[in-house]
Specification:
single chain; 427 residues; 16 helices; 0% strand
Length: 427
Amino acid sequence: MSEQSPTDAQTDPETDAKLAAVKKRVGRSAVIGAIFLMATSAIGPGFITQTATFTASMGAAFAFAILVSVLIDIAVQLNVWRMITSSGKRAGELANSAIPFSGHVIAILVVIGGLAFNIGNIAGGGLGLNALLGIDPKIGGLLTAALAIVIFLIKKAGKVMDIVLVILGIGMIAMTVVVAIIAQPPIGEALRQTIVPDELNFATITTIVGGTVGGYITYSGAHRYLDSGQTGPQYAGPVMRAAANGILITGVMRYVLFLAILGVVASGVALDLSSQAANPAGQAFGSVLGDAGLRIFGAIFWAAALSSVIGAAYTSATFLSSFHKRFLGGWSLQIATVAFIVVSLIVYLSIGTAPAAILVFVGGFNGLILPIGLTVFMYIGWFRRDLLGTKKYPLVLLIAGTLVTLLTWYMGIVSVGPIFAFLGTGA
């Protein structure tokens, strides 16, 4: 009686076809997940509040900051996605291969920045529940953090929440478009100041850049793409298309939200930017759609915050694998993620700053640390292409990435004071 050898089993056509189909399905899911993760990370409660706050204070001039943030986003994400996927290594491991211990530095900065983001996300949860139910933002933040921990530990609940968040995310986009149409913003003035602004504020640009591409957001989509198995320089084309799709979604949403808020502000509505219960974006939506609109916005804003709490904590915790392999998965990673949420909650409850001001500050803080990681990646692109599996790398990406790195260094240096002032005076 003969038995089929392992080799025979592996070369069975039917088995190979099934394995190929499963691999293709998993890969497609990971690619979609990477695009979705980048987009949802970049359009969280921080970005929404920052846009409302700066549009209220700067008016149409804020359009220029959005344009700059989109251009920086393109240069950063295309380079980071391409380098990480070409090397097949996560950011910390790739950086360490190029410059010893630089990956540890990036990991520390991402964890610190992720902590700042998560404090803001919990604050956003508090604002969302305040708009939805009228409860105190501090209590809302506590409930948001507690539910995030439960959802993270119960995988089935997390899958259900993923579906709900996709639906609510579509709802947010639809509501924003409706508000933008009803509010009738001065589109001509917005377009003019997109190119020639009446006011130029580097702290504002640094903050909106940090809130959409700083901290863990820089690497989240690319890290998720690694799960597709499509790694190596031969997959550069699909990687660039996936990154571009994510950037397109976030860029359009940024501008539409800006127009919606601008229409409200231009009509003479004054938004509260500094009180403990300040929720400028919610107020803008409420002024157009009434009390029902405010509450619907509160539900969607809270859901976005809840998703961001889990995503920021988990992604930041994975960077701990730069220090020890145990954090690649299992209970060590789960404990680290839960601890991350708990620490963020304690800090949020301990400080007296208004939630809206926190959401503005964390974007600025992550904008300050963004150029450090970019510098390492540009070094890899110029001098260590051997780590990317190819001697060829698009010169236009390197030039664009280098210019953006220099620009973010400059903006960070001149914006340190104003950004930290957000904590003490509100936005």
